[in-house]
């Protein structure tokens, strides 16, 4: 296999230091295990502590990348300028009324980060509460997270990560003075106000698992905070949140496919948490308060695609749950919200969403729905923070239509367009075409594929294609608008998203059919999408560039091993490719919670064999591979840097082609790359420049 992007001389060759382990009577040999630093937890927080030999290898790979991509520097600059030209620099969100104020995020021209501002509810002078740009200017990396205003609107808690490790420090700001308290609370995963003087928060441990919930009184030493809940099961993680009415704080604890909920009445902040329904194998549920009852979204009673039930506040156990919206196979209830007099939920069938709502006490036959007519589109629900209201906000976009924000009156059905995303450099949706096609997979399953192309692109099989996929954890890929991808589409690319098994685009069964030993269905579906695009003349064999990140990088790695002949190139962003070794290691941050997805290869020989059969690192073979760009982040707690590093080292020592293989490691950030709305464009420009070069267009 030859490529438009051949390798350049003097690629780094990682030293082989063979290690062996024996699992289930099978000897595993790993030449590159040394790339995992013994002090990886320290290096995640302080990347400069990475051992010298590992650092030297990663830096050598970065230098090789820089040389290989040097001739695309002008192209990358052009791409960044194009993408930045589509960003309205002095932008703001639609104000959101909450109590006596209206809150919104505002960007000023040139600012990487926004500011949180508020005005009196019915208009008046704006006050800046948090200028994130000012907080971030002294940091190489800055990502803020939780921003919660106290019930009386006098205090603000907010958190930030300054190295990409996702260890967030919580800060408390007095909104009368604009000053933060002198202390911070370290390693906070989530936070909620109990009352105006009390917080509860989930704390992340040294393994990056949120395992403890504490109660904090404003002004007290965090070292004296009270532990109110501890999760002992390493598969479970914690999160906290306040109900819309303000009557309860909830502690959610669970893993991907199982959970339980504990509640604390805010009127009695010192009360011990009380469980709604104890955890049970495979049972998931979430709650919303509505007066004298909880609404419960759950998969109980065999409701594979979820249903909505109701239970009394005074007796919320499962024995008292009663159906409100019954289960319907193939119709996935994605999320649910409750106001004092309204219930709203998002459901999805055949990869298309709609928003449904029903007045309290009314029969289901009175349900109303919000939907659109395009072949493929995305909807987002954004309920009001207020409880006694009929105002509901949602967003809409499609691959051709920039995002729109609507306010909707549930009582009257009146819809008001509040904002359309402005593309300063210009955008005409009529210049683009969106299509939804179905690709038959290896077992007959029909895989939805969303397609975007310029109307002038010839569909004669000559166009290059970027095919994107994810396919894990039940995460569905929305058919939404992206201004960035227009830079490829305007250059003649067909952009396609494969809604493969492992997501929930076609209901829960679509997800369940790609778990455990069925995981290869994800990869077959993606290959089928590529073959269908070729068969329908959207592209040509050898003209496809595939892209996926994290678990989507697993997808990319597996497909590279299975059908490299279809491809011109592959972009694997922070790819989860060392699957077997990672899922065998229960000391890693996410591993115990992952067993519900992949199986537990420590205990089960079948799970071991299943994972060994597709793990990209373990299935690299002496064959031709297309051009490849692989990324990593030293501070990444989700996919540790050594997974992509080991994979690239093994590929370079094994593959038989002469195509480029590059590893680019961000030495100062983690899973999500650079922070800031303009800085992030650099990562997109690198990917697109690679894709263009891989098909001979750069």
From TrEMBL:
InterPro entries named in the record: AB_hydrolase_fold (IPR029058), Pept_S9_AS (IPR002471), Pept_S9A_N (IPR023302), Peptidase_S9_cat (IPR001375), Peptidase_S9A (IPR002470), Serine_Peptidase_S9A (IPR051543)
Residue ranges constituting the Peptidase S9A N-terminal domain according to the UniProt record: 13-420
Domain Peptidase S9 prolyl oligopeptidase catalytic: 480-696
Example GO molecular function: serine-type endopeptidase activity
Name recorded for this polypeptide: S9 family peptidase
Protein family: Belongs to the peptidase S9A family.
Keyword Protease: yes
Coiled-coil region list: none
Record's keyword terms, sorted: Hydrolase, Protease, Serine protease
Top-rank taxon, per record: Bacteria
Gene Ontology biological process terms, A to Z: proteolysis
């Amino acid at each position: 296999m030859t490529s438009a992007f051949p390798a350049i001389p003097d690629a780094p060759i990682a030293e082989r230091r063979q290690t062996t382990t024996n699992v289930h009577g099978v000897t595993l040999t790993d030449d590159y295990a040394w790339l995992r630093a013994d002090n990886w937890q320290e290096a995640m927080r302080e990347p400069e502590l990475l051992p010298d030999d590992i650092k030297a290898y990663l830096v050598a790979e970065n230098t090789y990348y820089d040389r290989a991509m040097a001739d695309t520097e002008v192209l990358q600059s052009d791409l960044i300028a194009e993408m930045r030209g589509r960003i309205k620099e002095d932008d703001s969100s639609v104000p959101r009324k909450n109590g006596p104020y209206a809150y919104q995020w505002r960007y000023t021209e040139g600012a990487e980060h926004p500011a949180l501002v508020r005005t009196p509810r019915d208009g008046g002078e704006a006050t800046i509460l948090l200028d994130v740009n000012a907080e971030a200017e002294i940091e190489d990396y800055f990502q803020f997270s939780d921003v919660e205003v106290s019930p009386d609107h006098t205090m603000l808690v907010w958190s930030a990560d300054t190295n990409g490790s996702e260890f967030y420090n919580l800060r408390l700001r007095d909104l009368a003075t604009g000053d933060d308290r002198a202390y911070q609370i370290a390693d906070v995963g989530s936070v909620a106000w109990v009352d105006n003087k009390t917080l509860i928060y989930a704390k992340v441990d040294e393994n990056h698992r949120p395992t403890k919930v504490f109660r904090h009184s404003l002004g007290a030493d965090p070292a004296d905070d009270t532990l109110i809940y501890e999760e002992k099961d390493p598969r479970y993680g914690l999160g906290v949140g306040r109900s819309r009415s303000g009557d309860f704080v909830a502690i959610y604890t669970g893993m991907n496919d199982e959970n339980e909920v504990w509640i604390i009445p805010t009127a009695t902040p010192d009360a011990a948490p009380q469980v709604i329904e104890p955890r049970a194998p495979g049972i998931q549920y979430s709650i919303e308060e509505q007066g004298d009852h909880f609404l419960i979204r759950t998969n109980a009673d065999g409701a594979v695609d979820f249903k909505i039930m109701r239970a009394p506040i005074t007796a919320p156990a499962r024995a008292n749950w009663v159906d409100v919206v019954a289960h319907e196979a193939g119709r996935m209830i994605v999320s649910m919200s409750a106001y004092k007099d309204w219930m709203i939920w998002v459901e999805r069938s055949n990869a298309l969403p709609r928003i449904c709502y029903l007045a309290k006490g009314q029969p289901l036959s009175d349900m109303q729905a919000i939907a659109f007519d395009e072949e493929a589109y995305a909807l987002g629900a954004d309920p009001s923070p207020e409880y006694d209201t009929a105002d509901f906000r949602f967003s809409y976009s499609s691959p051709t239509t920039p995002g729109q924000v609507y306010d909707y009156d549930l009582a009257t059905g009146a819809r008001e367009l509040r904002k359309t995303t402005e593309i300063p450099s210009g955008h005409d949706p009529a210049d683009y075409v969106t299509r939804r096609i179905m690709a038959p997979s290896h077992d007959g399953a029909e895989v939805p594929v969303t397609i975007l192309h310029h109307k002038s692109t010839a569909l004669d099989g000559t166009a290059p294609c970027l095919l994107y996929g994810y396919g894990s954890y039940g995460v569905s890929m929305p058919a939404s608008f992206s201004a960035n991808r227009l830079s490829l589409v305007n250059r003649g690319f067909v952009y396609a998203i494969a809604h493969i098994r492992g997501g929930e685009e076609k209901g829960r069964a679509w997800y369940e059919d790609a778990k455990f030993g069925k995981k290869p269905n994800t990869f077959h579906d993606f290959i089928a999408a590529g073959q269908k695009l070729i068969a329908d003349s959207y592209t040509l064999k050898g003209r496809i560039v595939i892209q996926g990140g994290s678990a989507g990088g697993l997808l990319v790695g597996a497909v590279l091993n299975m059908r490299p002949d279809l491809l011109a190139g592959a972009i694997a962003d922070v790819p989860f490719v060392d699957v077997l070794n990672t899922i065998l290691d229960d000391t890693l941050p996410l591993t115990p919670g992952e067993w519900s997805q992949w199986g537990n290869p420590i205990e089960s020989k079948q799970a071991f064999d299943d994972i060994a059969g597709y793990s990209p690192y373990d299935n690299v073979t002496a064959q031709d591979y297309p051009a490849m760009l692989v990324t990593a982040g030293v501070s990444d707690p989700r996919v540790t840097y050594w997974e992509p590093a080991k994979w690239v080292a093994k590929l370079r020592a094994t593959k038989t082609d002469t195509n480029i293989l590059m590893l680019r490691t961000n030495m100062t950030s983690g899973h999500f790359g650079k922070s800031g709305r303009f800085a992030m464009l650099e990562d997109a420009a690198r990917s697109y420049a690679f894709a263009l070069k891989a098909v001979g267009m750069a």
